[in-house]
Design a protein that fits this description.
The complex is a heterodimer of chains A (242) and B (466). With 242 residues, chain A is of the alpha/beta class. In chain A, 52% of the residues lie in helices and 12% in strands. The chains are: A alpha/beta (242), B alpha/beta (466).
Chain lengths: 242, 466
């Protein structure tokens, strides 16, 4: 299958390893990955912060990059939720029927949705001999409703010791601009998330969104937590042998 | 306008104080955990919960769309039953109506409810020189709602405020409750006028409904000669048949009980039984403005169950205080700016007091999309800022980012420059301090240094193109 990758702007700049992992994983599974370099930002940050006019401009850009019918896969659950859930609202707020029609044709899948629902896979042939815990990010859990798809994928990884995260479904406190505008509450929240992660004795905490992971990692690193943060795609891309 | 202290500080400012209070943090944590569990059990034990939620949503939406008709029907029914209906455009007007109905020397009791708090009833009575006793125990203990005091501090307070509370009073909840009960009973028996809120008003029969945990409101309804009831415009419910849905939703969502401890319903006056005079004050206070907003009006579905607060990770750490006196929690962060406008700093900060995690929307018994409404209100905040002559630093940054992202070349150039700059700030692959607006992030969190090679650079190289 031909898959158009939406890498997400912050992955492009800050976490290129995630984009590489998605590419390697999908190619290993026998699919063709294309990357349209005209893609930039989905507009999530602007929409969620109240800059709705700017969000509409960015959404228009996305609809020009990804043509109707094309299967778009992204390793960012919050960007997927923005394109699927917020774009119709962005178009309505902007009073732009052309944009509303264009966003209807977008077929965006978060990576684990694509693997489990479209490809019908749970075992992707990955090998990762480490103790891992999984944080279900709010957008993946409550906006997209990915459910246990990431956990099913993780359970099928060879050598992986999956440990349950206490209070897993509680927000890490990132919330985009919230992390700056309400830094104190945000830090109080991530402090508890870090405590729960440390309680699992996991070597690695993974998720399907690098923005939440950057928040968790930022606190873990500052506290010398000794737990590594990884996007799920990077675990699934790992294989046995050299 | 609701009497909120002018220039009340932003959410983040008050939150900082709350976060540093160990007892508040502990109490909030314990309460939230217990409430979540109880509500989840109640919902699990109600097989038609989702149908009930959908019915609740539909009834609220239908009512709001014909609110004028139902309100007129309510006025007719209340009047026919012997009551007098007063209309108050805002909180100040409601205060004047109520104080105007009370004689100078009358002994007054009040029972706090969301709507009486919203209109600032206690302040209005005090300003008019009317001495009133509060019968809601939580309200009686000043600051109880925000500070969650323990038995020791309640005992101390009673000893200061209640003559019958002697030095021998035990630090035991039952003994404390008994002292409060005896104290309040005297107030109920001697009062001339009672002022309380109604949670629902049934349009076709003119019946008012009060749902409560302690039952002090019910004492207001039966004993004093004059009864003044305050209800918000959105308290109206078309019929008894509709009421049944809310009486099932409300207790399960609010406390996890299948039924509220005390549900009082009353219709007008009955000669020789209960009050001899009955007034209903219907308060708008910004609701018709909220109703005119096609997206925002959804918030008026709220039945004040506080289920959203119980699951909110922000509320669990800050408590009610930073949300101001109108209504706490996620729905308060929506309704307060809707009712009071988004021009001032406090109201403008409320829609941002959320990570948009969505836990509230999952539990709301009338399916209010609280995160969606918060984003909608953030849009209103930014639109109001756009009208200012000088843009805020944040607005300049956000516009620049949007302009940069609007074109591939601009984006790639900016990414290269930012990566280079950020790598200069990094030590050992981590950035520990960022300048300007982003400095709030690095107060307590690191950021990884951006790798030299972006994803698109890797892709270009791999693709064999330059």
């Amino acid at each position: 299958m031909r898959v158009a990758l939406f890498v997400a702007c912050f992955n492009d700049a800050l976490f290129p390893g995630t984009g590489r992992a998605v590419t390697e994983l999908l190619e290993r599974l026998g699919h063709e990955v294309v990357f349209n370099a005209d893609q930039t930002c989905c507009g999530q940050m602007h929409w969620a912060s109240g800059y709705h006019r700017e969000a509409a401009d960015l959404a228009r850009g996305v609809t020009r990059v990804f043509q109707g019918g094309e299967v778009v896969v992204t390793p960012s659950a919050s960007c997927a939720a923005t394109m699927r859930e917020s774009y119709p609202r962005i178009a309505r707020t902007a009073g732009d029927p052309a944009l509303a029609a264009a966003v209807e044709t977008l077929a965006v899948y978060e990576l684990t949705e694509f693997l489990v629902d479209v490809l019908g896979l749970v075992d992707v042939g990955a090998y990762f001999p480490h103790r891992v815990t999984y944080h279900p990010t709010c957008h993946s859990l409550r906006s997209l409703g990915v459910g246990d798809r990431p956990l099913r994928l993780l359970r099928a990884v060879k050598g992986l010791d999956l440990v349950e995260l206490p209070a897993a479904d509680e927000c890490c406190g990132f919330g985009g601009a919230f992390a700056m505008k309400n830094a104190d509450v945000s830090v109080a929240m991530v402090a508890d998330k870090v405590r729960h992660i440390r309680d699992t004795s996991a070597d690695v905490v993974c998720a399907v969104d690098n923005s939440c992971l950057a928040h968790i990692d930022g606190a873990l690193s500052r506290l010398r937590g000794g737990v590594q943060v990884m996007h799920l795609a990077e675990i699934l891309a790992g294989t046995e042998g050299p | 306008m609701t009497p909120v202290p002018v220039g009340m500080p932003k959410f983040a400012t008050t939150a900082r104080t709350a976060l540093a209070d160990p007892r508040l943090r502990r109490d909030l944590r314990n309460t939230a955990g217990a409430r979540r569990e109880r509500s989840a059990q109640a919902v699990a034990a109600t097989p038609d919960w989702e149908e009930l939620r959908e019915a609740g949503r539909a009834i609220r939406d239908r009512t709001l769309l014909s609110l004028d008709t139902y309100l007129q029907e309510l006025e007719r029914a209340v009047t026919e039953a012997g009551g007098t209906v007063h209309w108050a455009r805002n909180a100040a007007r409601a205060g004047r109506v109520i104080t105007g109905l009370i004689g100078r020397d009358a002994e007054v009791i009040t029972s706090a409810s969301p709507v009486t708090r919203e209109i600032g009833l206690a302040g209005a009575l005090a300003t008019a020189g009317i001495k009133a006793s509060e019968t809601d125990l939580a309200e009686l203990i000043e600051g109880f709602r925000a500070s969650h005091p323990d038995a020791a501090s309640i005992r101390e307070l009673f000893q200061r405020e209640i003559p019958a509370a002697t030095a021998e009073l035990a630090e035991d909840p039952a003994a404390l409750a008994e002292v409060a009960r005896t104290h309040l009973r005297d107030r109920f028996l001697s009062a001339d006028v009672a002022v309380c809120g109604a949670d629902f008003a049934i349009a076709d029969t003119g019946t008012l409904v009060l749902v409560e945990g302690e039952g002090d409101g019910r004492m207001c309804l039966t004993l004093p000669r004059t009864l003044i009831v305050v209800a918000a415009l959105d308290a109206v419910v078309p019929s008894w048949e509709d009421m049944e849905v809310f009486l099932q939703l409300l207790p399960r969502a609010s406390s996890g009980d299948p039924m509220s401890p005390s549900v009082s319903t009353w219709t007008g006056l009955v000669p020789g039984d209960g009050p001899a005079e009955f007034h209903l004050v219907l308060v708008d206070n910004g609701r018709t403005t909220a109703l005119a907003d096609e997206v925002g009006r959804e918030s008026l579905r709220c039945i004040r169950c506080t289920a959203c607060s119980a699951v909110c990770p922000v509320y669990e750490r800050t408590g009610a205080g930073p949300y101001g006196p109108v209504l706490p929690g996620p729905i308060g962060a929506v309704l307060t700016p809707q009712l009071r406008g988004v021009e001032r700093a406090f109201e403008a900060s409320l829609p941002y007091a959320s990570t948009l995690c969505g836990a509230c929307a999952d539990v709301c018994p009338v399916k209010i999309d609280i995160p969606g409404l918060l984003v909608h209100l953030r849009g209103q905040v930014i639109e109001s800022r756009r009208r200012r002559p000088v843009p805020t630093p944040e607005m300049m940054l956000m516009r620049t980012v949007a302009w940069t992202m609007g074109d591939r070349r601009r984006y790639e150039t900016a990414m290269q420059r930012t990566t280079r700059g950020a790598r200069l700030l990094a030590r050992g692959g981590r950035i520990k301090r960022l300048p300007g607006l982003l400095g709030k992030w690095t107060e307590a969190r690191d950021l990884p240094a951006p790798p030299r090679e972006s994803f698109r650079a890797w892709w270009r190289k791999r693709d064999g193109r330059s």
